[in-house]
Amino acid sequence: VLCEMNNFHLAEKMIRDAISLNSSLPDSWHILARVLDFQNDSQSAIKCYQTCLQLEATNPILPFTSITRNL
């Protein structure tokens, strides 16, 4: 929504704040990459896309805590 309003700096600040609270969510890194793309900061966007892909490769689709344990 903020990007649609051309408020890229606030959008970037908000997503960076979210990442500082939990940096293991690939979606957050993807959103940051898109915001940086809108601002023509291609190098930073590429780094964020790479982080997103690395996290997607290592994060389970469902949290491990949702798997029932058979003892």
Please describe the structure with a list of short key phrases separated by commas or semicolons.
71 residues; mainly alpha; 3 helices
Describe this structure in words.
This protein has helices spanning 8-21, 26-38, 42-58. By secondary structure, it is mainly alpha-helical. It is elongated and about 50 Å long.
Q: Look at the helices and sheets and give the structural class.
A: mainly alpha
Could you report the average pLDDT, rounded to the nearest whole number?
86
Biggest beta sheet summary: none
N-end to C-end Cα span: 47 Å
- Beta-strand content: under 5%
| Basic shape | elongated
Q: What percent of residues adopt helix (DSSP H or I)?
A: 55-70%
Strand count: 0
Poorly predicted parts: none
**H/E element sequence:** HHH
Q: What radius of gyration results from the CA coordinates?
A: 15 Å
So how many helices? 3
Helix/strand layout:
Blueprint: H1 8-21, H2 26-38, H3 42-58
Please outline what is shown here.
The protein is an all-alpha fold. The chain is built from three helices and no strands. Helix 1 (8-21) runs antiparallel to helix 2.
